[in-house]
Amino acid sequence: MTGARSEGLGSRWFGFRPEVAFQLANVLVVLVAILIAALIDPAPLRTTAFAIAIVIFAVATVLSLILGRTGSSWLLVVPVLGMIALIIMRQVPEDHIHALGYMAVFPALWLGWSGRPWFAALAVLLSLGMVEVPGLSAGGHVDLEHALRNFLTPAVVAVAAASTCIASRRTTSIICSLITQEKATADALRREQHTSQMLDAIVDAVDTAVLAFDADGNRILANQKALQHPSILDADPTALEAGSLFEPDRVTPVPADDGFIARALRGQEFADRIVWVGEPGTRQYAVSASARTLLDAQGRFGGTVVAMNDVTTYLETIAAKDDFVASVSHELRTPLASIVGYLELLEDDDDVPESVRPSLAVIDRNSRRLQRLITDLLATATNPSAPPLHRQSTDISDLCGAVVANLAKSAAAKQVRLRLHAPEPVVAMVDRERVRLAIDNLVANAVKFGPAGDVDVTVRSGDGTVTVEVADTGIGIPADELSAVTARFYRATTVRQHFPGLGLGLSVSASIVDAHGGTVAVASTERQGTTVTVTLPAR
């Protein structure tokens, strides 16, 4: 019997293969039969045939105990010997041994359980040796009882051996299939564990705090960066957001249902949500959070992943830089105002020689440029979108006309044809000074980067909005840089080497327009020109 079939009967018993139980059961039945015969009619026990059969049974039993502790297929010799012993017993006078044929079932089951059809066939063949030839009467007539026994003994053995053989083969097939599945499952589990360990190592290696929650809000993942952060350590989602989150101004509490984890657990996705963690007056930490949802197999909400970066140092550095820029700009503005004032007095003085006036024009041009740089720096440092706007009814056409008039001198010096297209008043509720600064920056850039070209400023109104379009025929902006032109201190590669500046004008203008609830769109073709379109709500 193979190892798989042996395992089909169970594990080893006291070190013996389980099929040894067939022989032990056979021996037990033989012993009981001997006891019954000894009590009722001991005559068959004294025959030579019975003695030989008992010796064969004893040899078979010893072999089963020896071979049963090994994996040898020679163990199948034991049921064959059992069948031979039963055949010999049938040679005892017929009146006493006809019931012994039933014992052939035990070796037949064993041989059938081997799963080998020819062993099952051998059991049937051996059972034919137990046919009772003396069953015929002395007159040559067939005795019905003996005839049925002669038929039923091999028939029962055949059925037992065949059915057991089929069951064994099916059991072996199932066991082999289960073993294969078990190995495949074990391999898949090892791969899954390896993948899980690798993913855990990757998640722990990133310099971003990562939290994952299931659909019920239970935290299922937190990498080392998250667990080590002072604002997240040992905190559950409720504790993390219960009155401890504040807006970028660091004092306005974030509503409980607007916290980044609360929003993520509602299935919302967002990026770069900046909040401050910690009460005002205590150590606060700035967190930039992003969230992405997880879907189950049916496409339903299955959880969320929140990624957080500690941007405290970054924001505090920005704030320190802005304070420094504002301080320096204020210190520069005062003496510059004096220079410009005295310069205007000199330009109005008729006693100034004509030979000096070109030099005064150079001083005036550079002073105004310096004034513009300082204004941009101040606007950037103070973040124009933060303070409240002083809205008033403003004629945007008139405002743009003032800007064009102020820059006419600079445009003429660069041989730029500066034109205003505003045929009628266009009124909007805006902060006049801030919007003028925004438009002034756009037109100044167009003049600066479009020498000996055209700059057209067009004002239009429609459907509750006001549009100001500044178009030039200058050097243009590369297409792959358009998305970055509104960033602070960013300067396109086409202007860096030939035009001085800080890269603040468009950024300041975009911030002012955004504070009004408007938009800035930039379209450009390199070496053909740029068009900046500002759209503001009329109310």
* Count of distinct structural domains: 4
Give the number of helices.
Answer: 16
Spatial order of the strands forming the largest sheet: 2-1-6-5-4-3
Query: Span from first to last CA?
Result: 94 Å
Which labels suit this protein?
single chain; 539 residues; alpha+beta; Beta-Lactamase; Helix Hairpins; 4 domains; six-stranded antiparallel β-sheet; five-stranded mixed β-sheet; 13 strands; rod-shaped
Q: What does this entry look like structurally?
A:
This protein has 539 residues and is an alpha+beta fold. The protein has four domains: 3-180, no CATH class; 209-310, Beta-Lactamase, CATH 3.30.450.20; 316-382, Orthogonal Bundle (Helix Hairpins), CATH 1.10.287; 392-537, Histidine kinase-like ATPase, C-terminal domain (Heat Shock Protein 90, 2-Layer Sandwich), CATH 3.30.565.10. The chain contains 16 helices and 13 strands. The strands form three sheets. A six-stranded antiparallel β-sheet has the order 2-1-6-5-4-3. A five-stranded mixed β-sheet has the order 8-10-11-13-12, with helices on one face. A two-stranded antiparallel ribbon has the order 7-9. Strand 1 (209-214) and strand 2 form a beta hairpin. Helix 4 runs antiparallel to helix 6 (105-113), helix 7 runs antiparallel to helix 8 (144-205) and helix 15 (432-448) runs antiparallel to helix 16. The radius of gyration is 51 Å and the shape is rod-shaped. It starts with a helix and ends with a strand. Mean pLDDT is 79; it is low at 1-5 and 135-140.
